[in-house]
Amino acid sequence: MPTTRPHHARPFNSYHDLLRRPWLVCVLLLGLAVQATPALAEADAETPNRTTVVWITIDGVRHDYVHRANTPALDRLIATGLHTRALVPTFPSVTFASHASQATGVLPRDHGVPANAFYDRRRQRTYHYPPFANLLQAEPIWFTATRQQIRTAVGDWPLAHWQEHHHIQTAHHNQRFDAQLSDRERLEQLIDVWQNDTHEQPLQLLMTWIGDVDKVGHEAGPDAPEVVETFEQTDVLLGWFAEAIHAQWQRTARDGDTLYLLLTTDHGMAVVHTLVNLYPLVGLPRDRDDITLVTTGNVGHIHLDRVEADDEREAIIATALAAADKHDFIRIWRRDDLPEQWQYDHPTRTGDLVAVLTTGHTFSVRPEGVTAPIGERGGPRGMHGYDPADEPDMLGFALIHRWPEPLGGREIKRIEALQLHPTVARLLGIAPAEGATAEPVDLAPR
Questions:
Q1: How does DSSP assign 326-369, residue by residue?
Q2: Distance (Å, rounded) from C-alpha 267 to C-alpha 35?
Q3: Integer Cα distance of 308 and 418 in angstroms
Q4: Is the dihedral of CA 243, 245, 251, 253 positive or negative?
Q5: Mean pLDDT (whole number) for 171-182
Q6: In angstroms, rounded to a whole number, what is the distance separating the alpha carbons of residues 328 and 97?
Q7: Average pLDDT over residues 328-338
């Protein structure tokens, strides 16, 4: 609405008008200073120092790969960062279960992802490498951050796709997993999202997955020269990526802002020598449609929910338990008898029976009998999933790097997978999800 000016008030209409009244200049400047001081303080309070976290998971990096290979890029990050050669995965140390535990900070009993493939008795459906975010029954860090107003971009992290069926959605996510993308393309995709994000509130959590090292570890075995070669190629890629995200961050960073790069893995890798066919081992025909058998690596689930007769169900269980007792490479538990430290007894996705093979063995339907040596019926020559409490080769490598203030080039003895969610939450200044109660990694120098 226009206002009228009193007739006696003559406005200042030029710089020279002010110069003719020097005493008034002083009064005006003093008034502006008094008004500006609280305004500036308020502006500073509204724009606190900002932390950005880029979290890359490199599938299948055993603890010793970085020392067997020529890795100048990782060596530079290690020299001023914080790293461990004992990143301890949860059981089972397979990709989907491990990534779910890292992202949520809880174990399979609570997050509901017992393996790469699993059957859900409530839905009577089997999932193989599922992309659906709503299958997670605990909150992953990308939703924890989003819920607390941290804008997040998540690429090909397992179970981060198809968020439309979830009540929270991140600022950016992939609709589906494209198996044809190279590791470089996945990292480029994340940088491209960051560079082209025009929202007034910047992205502060960016995540994705790369998998070439794991693929070669399965095909050739963890001790093969092909693994070293692939890891050296990954090192070149990570060197480029670290420079790229640092440059991108610097474009908008202010004094006091911080950038963290987390490089973690989901599990290590062990040499495989024997394939095991679970069907003949426990005396089950493959054509029974009322029994569901699902395996991932060295872990197998037998679901008997559609076997109608109680006495028949108990007979199948008794036969399977007796069969396992005849072999020293397998143990079978009823769901209620599983080791408590695994917290593996999910009510609808853990089998009535759970079979676990010892190191060097992996499940396969290719053997005509119970077992067959690797080579006779094909690979894999490397496998994971084994309990890290019993198998040191399941331990992985992890690194945390910080700009602009380095972390001192320290090596810490051990990081538990469940610490990663609360660590990222602490870096971002938010509360971890309910249930993610592990202590964050201590980044303070000692």
A1: T-TTEEEEEGGGS-GGG----TTTS-SEEEEEPTTEEE-S--SS
A2: 58
A3: 39
A4: negative
A5: 95
A6: 26
A7: 98
What is the tens place of the pLDDT at every residue in 13-70?
333 333 334 433 333 333 433 343 344 334 344 568 999 999 999 999 999 999 999 9
Sequence length of the chain is 446
With residue 29 as reference, give the H or E element that holds it.
helix 22-46
**Contact 267/89 with Cβ under 8 angstroms?**
yes
Indicate the residue type of 196: N
Could you give the 3-state DSSP secondary structure of residue 112? coil
Amino acid letter, 269 = M
Contact between 242 and 75 (Cβ < 8 Å): no
Summarised one tens digit per residue, pLDDT across range 402-425 is 999 999 999 999 999 999 999 999
Point out which residues pair with 82 in neighbouring strands: 400, 410
Query: Is residue 305 within 8 Å of 289, Cβ to Cβ?
Result: no
215-219, Cβ contacts within 8 angstroms, sequence gap of 24 or more: 215/59, 215/60, 217/60, 217/62, 217/269, 217/382, 218/60, 218/269, 218/379, 218/380, 218/381, 218/382, 218/383, 219/379, 219/380, 219/381, 219/382
The pLDDT tens digits of the residues spanning 128-172 come to: 999 999 999 999 999 999 999 999 999 999 999 989 878 899 999
pTM, 2 dp: 0.89
The pLDDT, as a whole number, for residue 136 is: 97
DSSP annotation string for 236-280: HHHHHHHHHHHHHHHHH--TT-EEEEEEE-S---EE--EEE-HHH
- How confident is the prediction for the chain on average, in pLDDT? 90
pLDDT tier for residue 7 given thresholds of 50, 70 and 90: very low
370: which 2 tokens?
């119970």
Q: Could you tell me what percent of the chain has a pLDDT over 70?
A: 89
DSSP-assigned beta bridge partners for residue 363: 276
Single-letter amino acid, residue 289: D
Single out the residue of 324, 224, 240, 309 nearest to residue 272, CA to CA: 224
Decide: helix, strand or coil at residue 411: strand
Peptide bond before 92: cis, by omega within 30 degrees of 0? yes
CA distance readout (Å), 231 to 11, 69, 70, 226, 283: 73, 7, 9, 9, 42
Q: What pLDDT is recorded for position 115?
A: 98
CA 219 to chain centre: 23
Residue 143 · residue 130 · CB < 8 Å: no
**Burial environment of residue 425 by CB neighbours within 10 A (0 to 12, 13 to 18, 19 or more):** buried
Helices vs. strands in the chain: H and E counts, helices first: 13, 20
